Amino acid sequence: xxxxxxxxxxxxxxxxxxxxxxxxxxxxxxxxxxxxxxxxxxxxxxxxxxxxxxxxxxxxxxxxxxxxxxxxxxxxxxxxxxxxxxxxxxxxxxxxxxxxxxxxxxxxxxxxxxxxxxxxxxxxxxxxxxxxxxxxxxxxxxxxxxxxxxxxxxxxxxxxxxxxxxxxxxxxxxxxxxxxxxxxxxxxxxxxxxxxxxxxxxx
Length: 203
What we know:
Layout: H1 4-32, H2 46-51, H3 55-73, H4 77-98, E1 106-110, E2 123-131, E3 136-137, H5 147-156, E4 159-167, H6 172-202
Antiparallel strand pairs: 1-4, 2-3, 2-4
């Protein structure tokens, strides 16, 4: 029992150090392409967002904790590995879905011709149409290829503009830190569960 914490501490330190180096390298390479047309991936893209901040390290630590708990519960290596990969994927999907709601978004209203604010510059939470009463409603479906026809359709439904609630680039670090906090909380709970299981088995 006394050596159990160290068996998780050393891998956790290795994951943290290795993940931190990868994040630093990716962020350096990504930042170096600033201002170059067509070469820099948007900060809001899934692969860029997680590779550029501590959330990636937190995901790796959560995967380690899942693996440790699964290894204690499932004696066979291949099934344990499969469960660990599947559980990590499910956790990542759940946290990614939750991420936009961990920090207050901003809401902007545009004219019909300008489209939705933040559509290609941030993480969108929701969008729709603003009516003459100020209500926010779903945008009526329009299959027309001509923008004017869609605008007339929106106006017939009482629309005056389009709204979008989204996260601009200024929200990168708040989103990173809140997402990391959620993942580290899950990691702590999984680690505690592992020690409970281990204590029950060793008496």
